[in-house]
Amino acid sequence: MLHSYQLIQGLLLPFLFGVGSCSDKIIKAPEHLNIIVIMTDKQSASMMSCTGNRWLKTPAMDNIALNGIRFTGAYATNPVSAFSSISLQTGRYPSEIGMRENSCVGIAKDKVIGLYTNAMGNVFRKGGYQTYYGGKVHMPVIGSDVSILGYDLLTLDERDSLAAICADFLLNRKEENKPFLLFAYFINPHDICYDAIRWATPGGDLANATPPELDEALKLLGISSSFCPPLPDNHQPMAGELSSVDSLLKLRIFRQNVRAKWTEKDWRMYRWAYMRLTERVVAQIGIVMEVLSKSGLSENTMVLFTSDHGDLDDSHKLEHKTILYEEATNVPFIILYPWMKKKGIVDNEHLISNGLCLMPTLCEVAGIEASSGLAGSSVLSLIEQNRNTAWTKNIFLETETGYIIHTGRFKYELDDIGKIKGMPVDLKNDGETENLINRVEYKPVIDSLRYELINHLKGEGVRIPALASQ
């Protein structure tokens, strides 16, 4: 099928993208603001060339950042797709309905559906928006029925067709009385997860289901690893690693196998493929952004780009996600709209929970009343930089084995499983290579973080992990 976006010269050349002028002229916010949320799967915050990563090129994302604001301190509420998607669509922690595992076992279906009643699509429809969804759907209970979330479905394709259909939607968008919200969820660079699965379990069902994009990425390298990125500085397992890490690896035995047996070349080739798959999705996003510019809609459209979570990317001899290290939790969070007073801002100061802050931010920009009781705040005051506002000094993350308080410099994790349950780290002086739990000089900081984390968990009605004294 020939899509109309293909008639635009140069769109399929992966690095020739633009998102409009970088002019400093002030444009007033439109009366009817369109919103596009673009999300990738498994993309760490560092996986963009605008962050200084010289091992890949991400022009579409770089251009959004060049014309907008990029928050470096953005984190997923939970580094697993289903959990993160719940937060992004509802503005709430998954644990609010008792979800800590990647399933709804033991959770009443009506409780989950009740949470979705105030999902973003439903909120924006009530606020007068036309709402559309395309791509990956990973929300418990609903299957692929995004109407429960308040969206009309454009496509369930997560790859090239999603870019094409979004482009067609923008090109053919007529003057409407209602603005639109478009949520586009692209699958890559998620395909990198099949690399370890296929290596450790050849011939298995998941290995046989490996998408062709991974093979294409590896073929670009050929037989030489000389062009692969180097191992990260924190490649070795952490000294004093939490017991939960070993427990999680035992649940997915292929992760344990690659940690024990992969060579340096294997790990470096993994990083190569991860970056090529990222570039693959960048090309798809570039198509959408180029068509937005050419469609005439860019002057009254806000774009927000983020990811559901990152990938451990060779850190601590780990791949995949779930574990609360920086590589799995720190995600891109970039906002662009044409009437911004300043452009190309990099915010290194404020901590953002993408799942908790997305809904309040979009609602404030659109002039829609957000659902009551949301834990997150709109980042609009940070973007405009003209309002004195007290911003949170820490954020909280969770996974199926534990919880974290994050201050920007310090992190403290408290887990349910095993002998070693507490893990403080100092990100300023260490790349998460040492658990500081027994370092006397950090005791005042550790005690303060533990106190704040436990109070947060009590406030959320969460069962406090055993041995909270660690």
H/I helix tally: 15
**Strand order, sheet with most strands:** 4-3-5-1-6-7-2-8
**C-alpha Rg (nearest Å):** 22 Å
Shape: globular
Q: Which bin fits the share of residues in helices? A: 25-40%
Structural class by sheet pairing and helices: alpha/beta
**Total beta strand runs:** 12
**Corresponding CATH superfamily of the largest domain:** Alkaline Phosphatase, subunit A
The domain count comes to 2
**CATH topology tier name of the largest domain:** Alkaline Phosphatase, subunit A
Describe this structure in words.
With 470 residues, this protein is an alpha/beta fold. It has two domains: 32-191 and 274-392, Alkaline Phosphatase, subunit A (3-Layer(aba) Sandwich); 396-459, Arylsulfatase, C-terminal domain (2-Layer Sandwich). It is 33% helix and 15% strand. The chain is built from 15 helices and twelve strands. A hairpin with a 6-residue loop joins strand 11 (410-415) and strand 12 (422-426).
Question: How would you briefly describe this protein structure?
Answer:
Helix content is about 35%, strand content about 15%. It has helices at about 60-65, 80-90, 110-115, 120-125, 160-170, 195-200, 205-210, 210-220, 245-250, 255-260, 265-295, 325-330, 355-365, 380-385, 445-460; strands at about 35-40, 70-75, 130-135, 150-155, 180-185, 300-305, 335, 345-355, 395-400, 400-405, 410-415, 420-425. An 8-stranded mixed sheet has the order 4-3-5-1-6-7-2-8, with helices on both faces.
